[in-house]
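Journal club prep — side note

Before the paper discussion, L.F. wants everyone to see what a predicted structure for a comparable chain looks like in token form. Sequence:
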Amino acid sequence: MTIQYKPQGVCSRAFEIQVEDGIIQSVQVVGGCDGNLKGLSSLLKGMKVEEAIQRMEGIRCGGKPTSCPDQMAQALKTAL
């Protein structure tokens, strides 16, 4: 399954997430903080969708009510 998601309220402009049998296979991010998002993408590869959501949901960026990890959790919820 390929999830294409347009995040809201963050610097990133788009996510493309490959999920197979409940496991994240790859994450591509357009825009945002390049190094941080490459690191996040690398850490998520091989992780169960449910665990990723649990770890990232609710993370905030500065004074914003959301963050790229929180938005990625919202995108991953569509795979459940």
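L.F.'s comment for the group: Strands lie at 2-5, 14-20, 23-30. Keep this in mind when we get to the figures.
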